[in-house]
Amino acid sequence: MAPITAQGKESLAAGLVAERDAQCPGLLTLTIDRIDDLNRLTPEALASLGSTAERLREDRSVNVVLVTGAGREYFSMGILNPAIRASYSKDEIVTLVRNANRTFDAVEALPQLVIAAINGTALAGGVELSLACDLRYAAAHASMTMPEATWGGFPGAGAPVRLPVIVGRARALELICTGRTIDAAEMERLGIVQGVFASASFSQDVSSVARRIAESGPLAVRGAKRIVSARQDPGFKAARELSDALRTALEWSHDVDEGIAAHKEQRKPRFVGR
After folding, report:
1. pTM as predicted
2. Cα separations (Å) of 223 from 106, 112, 113, 121, 219?
């Protein structure tokens, strides 16, 4: 399988752009370049990200993968919101969420170290993509929100599985169940991001960290990641299966339909728990 671009930029499918770092060939940046659509992870974009992860898995010339969004406004608005959901059938939504799970699992399973450069707002599935990365850094103006509970659902592409490992069980439940927005400073305080950089120099600062890691020994970086991942594996499969099962049941619930209707009608939803 051909490696991702040996030098310069390569436009991949569905608005994904790969760029090899000129100063450090072991660093590859993947940019979600869909500014007109708030860097949304469409089904096509998820498929492109998944196939790119497949190509990267055997690429020993890449030591670090940096994932970011184009522009400064959005890292990614995610996959679905109530307005977008209305254009899909319930079966299509379940399929889309499961495809997102497989894609994010593939990103997390890459042998390279994967860094999320959160350059702006991260919403819903955009948050879940960042959580599938090994490290996260945020621009000072960035924010993060998982609003699914306010729509009658829960994050279905990995947040309830990965977030408790990072922030603890209680804080993960609080963030997921309130759907509140956290700023970059709180992201750092909670350990969701490993650092916050000034907005004006964010790209350069996070690239500097990524280059430092990419210039380390590949066997050391990949070995450390394998050991840490093996330590955290127990329980992941069961949690993922439970998430998929509950998500399927959720799609046919009254509360999901009510959440979509309330969003469309700009009113407070009346959830009944069924």
Report:
1. 0.91
2. 18, 10, 10, 32, 6
